[in-house]
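Input (structure):
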C-alpha cells in the first residue's frame, strides 16, 4: 500500500493544510468517479491523503503502470484547476 497526497508547486510552505486538504478531496472525488481505478481516502494527522493498495494475485506491472498514469493525469488536472482558482486554495 502507498499513501500519498497532492502537493502543488510551492508545497506546504505556500498553502495552508486546509487548502491542501481541499485539493486532495477534489482529486479523490474526481478519481473516484472513474470506473477504471479504485483508491481510498484517509486522514493522517489532519492531512487528507489517498491510499493506493496493490495486492491482488493477478495484478501485473502493466496494471500498476496504467494506474500510476491515471493518477498522474488526474493529479495534474486537479492541481491546474486549483492554480486557476477553480479549487479553493
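Output (sequence):
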Amino acid at each position: 500500500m502507498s499513501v500519498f497526497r497532492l502537493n502543488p508547486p510551492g508545497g506546504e510552505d505556500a498553502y495552508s493544510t486546509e487548502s491542501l486538504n481541499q485539493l486532495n478531496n477534489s482529486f479523490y472525488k474526481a478519481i473516484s468517479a472513474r470506473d477504471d481505478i479504485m483508491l481510498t481516502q484517509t486522514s493522517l494527522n489532519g492531512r487528507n491523503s489517498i491510499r493506493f493498495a496493490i495486492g491482488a494475485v493477478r495484478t501485473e506491472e502493466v496494471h500498476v503502470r496504467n494506474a500510476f498514469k491515471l493518477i498522474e493525469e488526474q493529479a495534474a488536472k486537479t492541481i491546474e484547476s486549483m492554480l486557476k482558482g477553480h479549487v479553493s486554495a
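Notes: The chain has a mean pLDDT of 92. The chain has one domain: 2-83.
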